[in-house]
């Protein structure tokens, strides 16, 4: 996808990008400072509507809030999705501050501390167990608090998902309990007084190949159906993971959602209904829900020519939006989509290299990108910035102030 396509999704008027309907220069004035992140509520809602329309009705949608834990985003989504998944004690507190009921919050991730597990058991959420140690800690917390913990087993599957940006299942993993160990674990802990609701399999992140995601979901349902025979109670919770990707660089094509959704209809109406009739199937998404609704807005501080290359130096950089600099899991650095947000329709008359304000060559936001001729004060906008932006970046590096975040 080209930068122009991303701009069209937000909308433009009088040569300006709009976010939440507001022209960018006015929004910048409203925010009062650059750089900043802005998230478009309408685009968030549109994404959820698309998913709801495509998915089976019985399938529940969970928001993996580590993708964007801004409280206003989490609050907004809490009213629109069915569940929230957290990955730390702090995220748990933020999720509990929303209207989401605690039994609809899950907590995944390796290395949950005894204190975090105690918080989780006290709040009544679903703890997704990654190891025997976590099982022991949950039991200890339940005994101490006089509560029956709710848990699900996170399973490291016996298959790997190819073509995913970040693989998190299959082979040796710090995530989950290996599928072949699960029967013994269930047997050993059968009398532990813990409410085992079901299973969770998360195979990887940033996957744009619908056929690969569909295959992983089929194999997950197969795997869980066979593990279910080792559980004393019916499976009530079936978290099929997610990992839906979004297009970052020009050659990326958007995920074919309908293909994934058709497969989910087959699974939910077929093997899930037949073999696990009491299970609530869940899809858990972070990046796909929020990534495309967000922009990172910076202002041009300097413009200089160096031996034939035009440099635009902006007031933001990789300390806020690490991924755009290629430092977050990209093998080859490619440009994330960017435009001059206050001159969207203008002809692209020059090639410029857009760099951030950090004193390192790594702070490169756009390498020889086609732009209209830019001046000091213009607004450079980076798209696809709604997920793994601010909280996934080294904000303390060089000690610049934190950017504002707004939802419009
Ligand atoms: C990170 C994570 C997610 C979210 O992944 P996305 O690729 O952002 O959708 C979902 N589930 C688990 C268990 C995770 O660790």
TrEMBL record:
Lineage of this protein's species?
Bacteria, Bacillati, Actinomycetota, Actinomycetes, Micrococcales
Name of the featured protein: Diaminopimelate decarboxylase
What Gene Ontology molecular-function terms does this entry list? diaminopimelate decarboxylase activity
Question: What does this protein need as cofactor?
Answer: pyridoxal 5'-phosphate
Keyword match Cell membrane: no
Q: Which residues carry this modification: N6-(pyridoxal phosphate)lysine?
A: 66
Where is the Orn/DAP/Arg decarboxylase 2 N-terminal domain positioned along the sequence?
44-290
User: What keywords tag this UniProt record?
Assistant: Pyridoxal phosphate
Biological processes annotated in GO:
lysine biosynthetic process via diaminopimelate
Naturally occurring in which organism (per UniProt): Homoserinimonas aerilata
Q: Does the keyword Electron transport apply?
A: no
Show the active-site residues.
359
- Coiled-coil residues are none
């Amino acid at each position: 996808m080209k930068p122009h396509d991303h701009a069209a999704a937000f909308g433009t008027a009088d040569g300006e990008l709009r976010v939440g309907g507001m022209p960018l220069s006015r929004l910048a004035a409203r925010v009062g400072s650059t750089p900043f992140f802005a998230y478009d509520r309408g685009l968030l809602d549109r994404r959820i509507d698309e998913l709801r329309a495509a998915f089976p009705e019985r399938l529940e949608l969970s928001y993996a809030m580590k993708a964007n834990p801004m409280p206003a985003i989490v609050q907004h989504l809490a009213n629109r999705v069915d569940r929230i998944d957290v990955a730390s004690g702090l995220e748990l507190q933020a999720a509990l501050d929303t209207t989401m009921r605690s039994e609809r919050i899950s907590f995944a991730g390796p290395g949950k501390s005894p204190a975090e597990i105690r918080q989780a058991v006290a709040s009544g959420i679903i703890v997704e167990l990654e190891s025997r140690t976590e099982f022991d800690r949950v039991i200890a917390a339940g005994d101490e608090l006089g509560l029956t913990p709710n848990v699900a087993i996170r399973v490291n599957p016996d298959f790997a998902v190819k073509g995913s940006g970040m693989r998190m299942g299959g082979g040796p993993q710090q995530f989950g309990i290996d599928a072949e160990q699960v029967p013994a674990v269930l047997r050993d802990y059968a009398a532990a007084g813990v409410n085992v609701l079901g299973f969770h399999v998360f195979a990887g992140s940033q996957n744009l190949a619908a056929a690969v995601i569909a295959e992983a979901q089929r194999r997950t349902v197969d795997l869980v159906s066979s593990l279910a025979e080792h559980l004393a109670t019916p499976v009530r919770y079936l978290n099929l993971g997610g990992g839906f990707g979004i297009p970052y660089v020009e050659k990326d094509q958007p995920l074919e959602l309908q293909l994934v959704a058709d497969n989910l209809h087959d699974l939910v109406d077929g093997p899930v209904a037949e073999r696990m009739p009491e299970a609530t199937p869940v899809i858990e998404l972070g990046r796909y829900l929020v990534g495309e609704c967000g922009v990172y807005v910076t202002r041009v501080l300097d413009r200089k020519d160096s031996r034939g290359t035009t440099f635009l130096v902006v007031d933001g950089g990789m300390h806020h939006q690490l991924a755009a600099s290629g430092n977050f899991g990209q093998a080859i650095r490619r440009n994330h989509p960017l435009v001059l947000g206050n001159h969207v329709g203008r002809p692209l008359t020059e090639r410029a290299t857009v760099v951030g304000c950090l004193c390192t060559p790594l702070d490169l936001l756009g390498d020889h990108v086609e732009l209209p001729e830019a001046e000091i004060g213009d607004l450079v906008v980076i798209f696809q910035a709604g997920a793994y932006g601010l909280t996934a970046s080294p904000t303390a590096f060089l000690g610049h102030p934190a950017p504002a975040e707004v939802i419009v």
